[in-house]
Amino acid sequence: MPFLRPPEGLVCGVDEAGRGPLAGPVVAAAVILDPARPISGLNDSKKLTALRRAALAEQIRATALAWAVAEASVEEIDRVNILQASLLAMQRAVVALAGADGPVVPSHALVDGNQCPRLPCSVEAVVGGDGKVAAIAAASILAKTTRDAGMRVLHDIYPEYGFDRHKGYPTALHLKALREHGACLAHRRSYAPVARLCRS
C-alpha cells in the first residue's frame, strides 16, 4: 500500500514504542524525511524483522532532514499513567529534533494513533499512521530499535528476567520470572501484574 502524501512544509512523523510492556521506559521518535532521498522498505516497525529494522534505522539517521528520540521513564509512567507518559515522550522527541545544521522546528506533525501531544507546531493524529505515512513509519522504526537496545542493556543489569527476549512484554517467561524474583527497579508498578506481586 502506498504511503499518503504529507502536507507541504517541514512535516515530522511521530510514534512511540513500549506502551504495553511491564518494564522499561516508553520511547518516542520524531522524523522529518528528505523528499529528495526516499527510503525504500519503510513500514510499521512491528511488521519488519529485527535485522530489517536495524538496517532501516541506520538509513533513517543518515538521510533524514532531522530526527530525534526521547523517552519517559518508568517513574513518570507510574506517576502520570502510560498515555500521558507516551505523549510526554513524543513532545520531547519533537522538541529535540535536529539535523546536520542544528535544531529544526517542524511546521506540522503527524502522530500515530488518536491522541496528540502538545507541540510547538500544528499536529494531527493518524490512526494506523505507521502503515500510512512514511515519516511515521520511520519514527516507529527509530523508537522500536532504540527501545529494544535499551532493554538489552537492562538485561545485562537484571539477567534473571529475560528482557533481551521479551523486551518487557508480559510473556509467560516474564510473568514466571516476576513470580520467582519479584519486581526490579525497571518494572512499572502501576501495571496490574506487577502491582499484584508488590502487594503480595
Describe this structure in words.
With 200 residues, the chain is α/β, with parallel strands linked by helices. The protein has a single domain, classed as Nucleotidyltransferase, domain 5 (2-Layer Sandwich). Helices cover 40% and strands 18% of the residues. It is built from 7 helices and 7 strands. It has a 5-stranded mixed sheet. β1 and β2 form a beta hairpin. α1 packs across α4 and α2 packs across α3. The model has no long low-confidence stretch (mean pLDDT 94).
Secondary structure topology:
Blueprint: E1 11-17, E2 26-32, H1 50-63, E3 66-72, H2 74-80, H3 82-95, E4 98-99, E5 102-103, E6 108-112, E7 122-126, H4 134-157, H5 163-166, H6 172-181, H7 192-199
Shape: globular
CATH topology: Nucleotidyltransferase, domain 5
What is Rg?
17 Å
Query: Averaging pLDDT over every residue, what do you get?
Result: 94
- Biggest sheet: strand arrangement: 3-2-1-6-7
Residues in helices, as a percent range: 40-55%
What's the level 1 CATH class?
Alpha Beta
Q: How much of the sequence is in beta strands?
A: 15-25%
Counting DSSP E segments of at least 2 residues, the number of strands comes to 7
- CATH superfamily placement: Ribonuclease H-like superfamily/Ribonuclease H
Give the topology string: H per helix, E per strand: EEHEHHEEEEHHHH
CATH architecture: 2-Layer Sandwich
Report the span from N to C terminus: 49 Å
Structural class: alpha/beta
- Describe the main β-sheet briefly: 5 strands, mixed
SS element count, helices: 7
